[in-house]
Amino acid sequence: xxxxxxxxxxxxxKHEGSRRKASWKDPDGRVISxxxxxxxxxxxxxxxxDIVSGKARFQxxxxxxxxxxxxxxxxxxGRFGRGQMQKPFEEATYALKVGELSDVVxxxxxxxxxxxxG
Length: 118
Prior knowledge:
This protein is an alpha+beta fold. The protein has one domain (6-116): Chitinase A, domain 3 (Roll), CATH 3.10.50. It has 4 helices and 4 strands, in the order βαααβαββ. It has helices at 30-33, 37-52, 58-65, 87-95, and strands at residues 6-13, 76-80, 105-107, 110-116.
């Protein structure tokens, strides 16, 4: 079973269409509720470019900008198997090679970029 598990970190940007419109950064959800999906994607793509270009480290960007509580661990979600994450997130993670960074992935939580770490 362990062989089927992966490890990943992610950066989540929530938006007005997110299932839960609150986060550790925005407990009242004021900013999230006013953020369109397009704006969230633009922000995520800018952050991704900073990471890919070497201007910023994934962990630092996650810690500062991610709307997920995993931000305090640099975005690390630990190990997980199939059926534990939302389907689009799971599929994107399993499709990556270790060390590879995803494009924008949409889930009910918001928009993500995923770094497969194991």
